[in-house]
Amino acid sequence: MKQSKGFSILLITGSFILMLGLILASVRFGYQQTSFIQIVRSFTAFDGSNAHLVIQSVRIPRALIAAAVGASLAVAGVLMQTLTKNPLASPSIFGVNAGAGLAVVIGVTLFNVTSLHSFALLAFLGAGIAIVAVFGLGSLDRNGLSPLQLTLAGAAMTALFGSVTQGLLVLNESALEQVLFWLAGSVQGRDIALLWTALPYIAAGFAIALFFAPSFNVLAMGEDVASGLGVKTGMLKIWIGIIVVLLAGGSVAVAGPIGFIGIMIPHLARKLIGIDHRWLIPLSAFLGANLLLLADLVARYVIMPQEVPVGVMTALIGTPIFIYIARRVGTSS
Amino acid sequence: MKRFVPVRIGQKAVSFLFDKLTFLRVTLALLVAAGIFFISLGLGEVWVSPLDIAKVLFGGGEPFHQLIIRDFRLPRILIALLVGVALAVAGALLQGMVRNPLASPDIIGISGGASVFVVGFLVLFSDSNGALTISIQWLPVAAFLGALLAAILVYSFSWKNGLSPVRLVLIGIGLSMFMNACTTLLMLVGPIYRASQANIWITGSVNGSTWGQVWILFPWVLVLFIISLMMARHVNLLELGDDVTKAMGSPISKQRIVILLLSTGLVGGSVAFAGGIGFVGLMAPHLARKLIGSSYGALIPMSAIIGAALVMLADLIGRLIAAPLEVPAGVFTAAIGAPYFIYLLFKERSKKS
């Protein structure tokens, strides 16, 4: 669907404003009661009270991390789908999360790593290796693998990483306790410093993605057309790989494995704004942020006072949509 | 000497082509599997010589050897064997039905459904002291129900003017991710030692099997195996493609339901006792196909033999490699299976182009 420029700008602005609203709501609502006045006061006149502490050290990092992670996953999904021409392509389907999980578990069981910061580093590494592996598989064939084959390859990688992870955890029970919360995927209890560490990578990913947006449009028309029009498709693919490593790796490093955002959001965004990547990328980013903020907000209330990990929430929301998309893909091929 | 010998018993009662080459290969595979069986009986933390094994099997031998072999090793090896047979036959049937060599019960989420129910069972029926409030014997029932539910869900979501194999696989993958999320949630909610227990179970292990379990699983697998053999000719037809099958007057969707139920029964049974041992349902039928071709009359028994050999071998390695700790058999089947899977994926692709 092609939309007029004015409508596109309106959509993107609208989703941006919605994102700001959700960030505010994410800071405001939760188990610890706070008010909007307290939020303002915690900036202007911090008094060390419980509410102010929660706002400054728990809620604000959490909201910002949710927004950044949601946006990164969505954009990574858009690019993976453009590259593979596969509507089901996304970081979680391709085993990125499982790769990150394996790296973290290896770190914990074999090298006694314990801090969240080292988890982040390991996760980034594991995600990177998984992405390179799947892209390597995908690029062995000029025409690309069919959606079914790519999805199956991802499922196989996920199963491989998953069972090695579980094997390690079986041998080392205390490690299970340490990493179980991480393996569920959550934006809760993350230090804001973690975000500041990952932010340059994520920001670089967004910047490169936007820079190449016109070329992605050409690539989406098919590789032959793209190279006929003078796009260096080989280089462009490598750039996509780099962007996906930065975005998906960065977000799994901060929040652990969170699935389905990279599948759902690109679809929704394409329906709303069409296939022009110059609009599609920013809109997907804001929508992704909104979805994760919302999922995180809901996750606080489902089994209060406990919390559902947001990775579980997105899976609960995402599965019906995945099934909807898969039913359409299964029909066309 | 002719390779094929027609066999007819009675008037139109039983008639089939007897393939000598296939028979020879199946026999060889059977010998290999039997070899693994006896090696498994002997090897372990305590070495028992073949002579002593024979003595125990015929009712004699030292009490110590009797204890090790009869009470510890034999039940778990038999469970491994039965589980291998069940998974391999289920995989062979599913692959024939989906006409895609990449389908297998664990990839389309049937094992995942069983996992959710098992973890749910462990978490929900634990009291505050961590003791189970109802008997652990109900665990297999929970696993089977989970597998069945997953199969029904996968099946009904992929139904759209009939059953498309591609849709079935894609939706299965989506649902297994969903099941994983549910499992993680349940593990987080429950007490940590239950999580660890559940974790072993999800990976798939035959450790701690008992004779009671063998006697439940054996008739179950046997009956379903015989029904599968009877379905073989229908699967042969299904493999030729929808158009041919329809033209031959075969009710495709009805048969697909029967096959799906059969494989769910087989997977449910094995998952109930051994957890999610992965990739056997994928590898065994493949290797079998390579060795004896794709006629299901022979493929089903051959897959069963290879499946049994694979799981027994995985269990043996798991017992030996990090002794005295036990590595679940599922780790090894996945470690061999996943690369094999990716290799297959590429072979399939290059065949098409």
Automatic annotation (TrEMBL), chain A:
Domain of life: Bacteria
Gene Ontology terms for molecular function: transmembrane transporter activity
Protein family membership: Belongs to the binding-protein-dependent transport system permease family. FecCD subfamily.
Phylogenetic placement of the source organism: Bacteria, Bacillati, Bacillota, Bacilli, Bacillales
Lipid bilayer topology: Multi-pass membrane protein
Annotated Pfam families: FecCD
Species annotation: Jeotgalibacillus proteolyticus
Chain segments annotated as transmembrane: 6-31, 92-112, 119-138, 150-171, 192-213, 238-267, 279-302, 308-326
Localization (cell): Cell membrane
The protein, known as: Iron ABC transporter
InterPro entries, A to Z: ABC_BtuC-like, ABC_transptr_permease_BtuC
GO cellular component labels: plasma membrane
Primary localization: membrane
GO annotation terms (biological process): siderophore-iron import into cell
Secretion signal span: none
From TrEMBL, chain B:
TM annotation in the entry: 21-41, 77-95, 107-126, 138-157, 169-193, 214-237, 257-284, 296-321, 327-346
Bilayer topology annotation: Multi-pass membrane protein
GO MF terms held by the record: transmembrane transporter activity
GO BP annotations, alphabetical order: siderophore-iron import into cell
Gene Ontology CC entries for this record: plasma membrane
CDD domains: TM_ABC_iron-siderophores_like
Annotated keywords: Cell membrane, Membrane, Transmembrane, Transmembrane helix, Transport
Cell location: Cell membrane
Family (UniProt): Belongs to the binding-protein-dependent transport system permease family. FecCD subfamily.
Protein's recorded name: Iron ABC transporter permease
Organism annotation: Jeotgalibacillus proteolyticus
